[in-house]
Amino acid sequence: MTETLVIAGARMLGRDGADILVEDGVIAEIGSGLSRTGARVIDADGLVALPGLVDLHTHLREPGYEASETILTGTRAAAAGGFTAVFAMPNTSPVADSAGVVEQELALGEAAGYATVQPIGAVTVGQKGERLAELGAMANSRAKVRVFSDDGFCVFDPLIMRRALEYVKAFGGVIAQHAQDPRLTEGAQMNEGVVSAELGLAGWPAVAEESIIARDVLLAEHVGSRLHVCHLSTAGSVDIIRWAKKRGIDVTAEVTPHHLLLTDELARGYDARYKVNPPLRREEDVMAVRGGLADGTIDIVATDHAPHPVESKACEWQAAANGMVGLESALRVVHQSMVQTGLLDWADVARVMSATPARIGMLEGHGTPLEVGRPAQITLYDPSVASTFSAADLHGRSENSPYLGRELPGRVEWTIHNGVVTLAAGTVVEELNA
Ligand SMILES: NC(=O)N[C@@H](CC(=O)O)C(=O)O
Fold this sequence. Notes:
Blueprint: E1 5-10, E2 18-23, E3 26-31, E4 40-43, E5 48-51, E6 53-58, H1 71-80, E7 83-88, H2 99-112, E8 116-119, H3 135-140, E9 147-148, H4 158-167, E10 174-177, E11 190-191, H5 194-199, E12 203-204, H6 206-223, E13 227-229, H7 235-246, E14 251-255, H8 257-261, H9 283-294, E15 300-301, H10 330-339, H11 346-360, E16 378-388, E17 407-417, E18 420-424, E19 427-428
Parallel strand pairs: 1-4, 6-7, 7-8, 9-10, 10-13, 11-12, 13-14, 14-15
Antiparallel strand pairs: 1-2, 2-3, 5-16, 16-17, 17-18, 18-19
Helix pairs in contact: 4-6, 6-7, 7-9
């Protein structure tokens, strides 16, 4: 039994303040002056009501790397950030390349209860890029996998990429490509440019991303399949996606919050919290990805939440792992980079952080507008406040956030997943009332 909730006076998209009644995990009524005996009343005065956020790109690390994150801790972080569903990347140990592993992840997500965990399957066995994994078995499993990715690695062999694109057509799936030419990025430490030259660090050139995206949109066109581009980071990549969409190619693209806000200048301090793959780029690239997200060339924001233990980050730059945690900060960073700049409004945020990621990933029960009869996936956000992001804001097992000590606007106040309150007045709920 879920609680009955009355969310009072929320700022709804496209209408004035309204009350939302949640019963049995569903939005039962929207109106004014709503009440129910025994209902828990949530004062939402001044809070923006968004459909529960959906992250198409999360690293939950379980099975295998539980020192960095688990499905429980990662979904608590998700709840803290306003997410009600996360897609789990397959670079676990064992790799999620079989029905057994994806079903295990699904079950662990259900047991945790903080957010829907939708596994992403690996494209190739062990993410080694040599032969296709059993995509059909994962698709037909209880986890109903529709998104496949070797994220962390590029599906570099064009014939394997072609075959994967062809294969997923049978069940309407999508290949989410980590676009990185491995030869052009051997030993790469940061964006290749003025800063890498000054620091003497090996560069990761934009062309290593752009050349793979260009190849893959053409492959997707050739075989008539669906491609999704992970964490797009350069101005040139935005141009290629814009061209491909104009041509009618079935491609979607994501950008991370960090690529919308941070630049490679941050590498100057050699603080490995800023080391990430793809790397932070130039100011021009940040402006181009913002523009691409604003004009719809880039479809969604995805966090690439990538937890790493302290020993992998509190070390010299070259030895440090790539990756940043991002679930708790994502909405606030999008608020700063896209809403405060006037590039997106809250309805757009609902589209790029909830509706479209759910659609791309073919996830049912998420990303739907806040309407009567819909599953109660709701995020309540206070845009009027600001605070310094600190370790107290992090709820996962790792603290490798680039925002620690940085002022960010807003605060996620409430998260409701299938009618269950997972975040209450900014505090992650310890015992879920499911
Ligand atoms: N994005 C990252 O910087 N890291 C990812 C993998 C990857 O994409 O390299 C991780 O799993 O840690």
